[in-house]
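User: Predict the structure for this protein chain, please.
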Amino acid sequence: MSTSGTLITRNYSQFRGIDFSNRKDEVNIYRSPDALNMWKNYRNSNGKCIETRPDVELLTEYSNTIFGLFFYNNRKIVHSGSRLFDEDIEIFSTMALHESKYFIYDNKLYIKDGTHFLVYNGVYCQEIEGYIPTTTISRTPAGGGTKYEDVNLISSYRKNSFVADGTSTEFLLDAKELDSEPPRAWINGIETLNFSYDKVNGKITFTSAPPEPDTVGQDNVVIQFKKTVDGYKERIYNCTLLEMFDNRVFFSGNKDYPNFIWHSSLEDPTYCSDLDYYSEGVDDAEVKALVAGNNALWVMKSPSQSNTTIFYHNPTIDAEYGKIYPSSHSSISTGCKTTGINFNDTICFYSEKGLEAITSDVTTEQAISHKSSLVDSRLLNEEHYDSMILEEWQGYLLTIIDNKIYLADSRQYSQVNDRLEYEWYYFELPQNILRTTVKDDVLYLGCGDNKIYTLSNNEDTRLVDSYWTTIEDEFNYPQYQKITNKKGCVVDMSGKEIVIYAKTDNKSFDKINTYKNVKGYVVPRIKKKKWKSIQLKFTSKYPFSLYSSTLESYIGSYIKR
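Assistant: Here is the predicted structure, written as structure tokens:
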């Protein structure tokens, strides 16, 4: 049992992040209840200290809102307003005023903006030309044949392949009510124009009968025609979500089909069969995110009255249809409020309660684990929580809302309510962030002032307001008054100019001293008497690092009420 006059030493070190939970009596001494623009830079200090975040550095300025930001062949591609730029060169001029998404396949850049579906090869940027499927083969001039390929949602063109009989001139196609555009025809691989066509009945009449094939039963007449089906192309073009999985592109986010997903054919993003789609669940709650990971495609739907909101698709071989992706529902009833991501091989999404991680066993009741208790009190109250951006950078999951960044650390876990959660840090930047991308470990930010910035560690130009506060520490004796040992405070830190403050109980912070060009230990003289709790604050407008702080205090008499 402690008695009056006992000296107690507190060592604040091995800092682990922030705790915005407002539980003053439960915040651990290695966390901060209030910190700004401080983090662990594992690349510089191997996590031995906390330090000021990098500053933003202007890279490029544009004249309109930045809707897309990505890289292709080491060149920066920017969707600004209605224009698309490769570095400073305009490559497309009629983009939608909507966020654009991209993927790279076969060294070509594909871009979707909810209206267009573009392909760029480094020279030309244009609307994609959808693969033209051969829908019927081994067809006789009168019809029949074998169904071969499905109709392509993103191409109005189709082909039929026939076996000529040497006498017939009329060839009946497998569709009627064709478009007005004239068909094309090839006989034994040579294109011919010697025919007429009946678009209403889907019939081609050759001037003279095509000859029989040299090899009996071999197709030798191919007819290509156009038949537009209303709304087919828009099913894919109006999608706002896309994800690469199993060498295919999966699409969703079409407001007219809120709970549907589609996918391209194997290794061809320009071919989307009209049969390759899945309806997720029995209700029309919208799909909020597509995330690939753990050998599955995860489909996350918004909260609804149904019992299931998270679905997953595993590749399966079907005897008739080949590889398919049947929809399976998990036992998770918690809906996705905003978006999701594969963070360090963990499938995560944001619910109405914060960040959730999906466990490996989705058939049990314990299929998700909450990960953001330490920041929920502030994060959930963000005005634009519904429109957050998620980005993975240097081992952190960045949750970006307006000009604020919440950083979840994949290398540090904490025990919260009998579960492991991430440690967190918190940044505020000068501008609202609209788009992000990462290239060669550099974070690029497209901001609300129509400018693109990077985060820079340039010591010559960095001016970042940052601070770290310790807990409101009662030294484990809340019933006693305490007195600081004025010679018993030692701080290990470094920086150009650092100010140390101290606060007791509910009073305001008092400035202790300003320390310049610090590279090691300083000994602040903190003179505080008859306090119940004490709190330290370290702050600077220049970059600084904090390794540890030691504070000694004597136990006094009982607190008087």
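The chain has a mean pLDDT of 93.
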